[in-house]
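User: Run a structure prediction on this.
Assistant: Running it now.
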Amino acid sequence: MTARENLTYVYAVVPDTWRVRTGLEGLRGVSGADVSLLGEGEPPESEGLSPSLAFVISRVAAHEFDERTLKARFEDLDWLEGIARAHHEVVQAIAREDTVLPLRLATLYQDDERAQEALAAQRQVFAERIALLRGRSEWGVKLYIGAAEPAKDHGADGAGSSSTLSPGKAYLRRRRAQHSVREDHYRNAQEAAQRIDALVSRFRTHRVRHPAQHGELAGPEENVLNDAYLVPDDRTDSFRAALAAVAADLDGVRVEVTGPWAPYSFAMPPPPPSEPSREAAARDGPVR
């Protein structure tokens, strides 16, 4: 396949070090393509020197990843899941070796030269962001409310059972009981959220609030908090221990802590609209 038949797919920005280069050996990315570095120059011989930066790239077939094809394929959930998984696995593999600044799915350039121009144009911003992320990982904290399951109804004032009531009155009683339990759960969730805020402020450096998840992503419970935290790696044990029992005494709520992840939530913000679009590495997918 010739260079003109290829596009340059970019996964992330990294320090161009021998450790990163070694970690990429044998790694495969989207469409099974080899993964390599496209950087500013050779890695420094001395670890005391500041490394140059590089894009982590693969070269992919233009007919599979041009703008028109991508628009159609983004409707194909099976294909999209495969690309997302391959992209994520590359980013996570790098995160095990060094600091990684993940870029968005399907960040593409017409060729290596265009990609290098984008790297040079945003070099300072990339370097500042990598410095922020160094020695830190992303952790997710989610808060869930369980389904309302009221205690068995023994009738008003303990006299009799709902079986002595008409079907309509028994139904209304069950609904009132469920509503009461649900209200208790919401109050407990609010208390848990306040406790989480107070605890994690001692450990995290930055926070991103994501929208609550719904449907299959949340499962049978209701997701009411979906935050990402940037936590120094030397404080993660204390971070997890502090959250382990944050809601142990609160009925109907559950706290889930996940990580460590590559810092997707703390990656590059989009550049101002006035900047040339091809300088926007990691934007919305069209080839540049």
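The beta strands are 6-15, 36-39, 53-61, 101-109, 136-145, 206-209, 222-232, 253-261.
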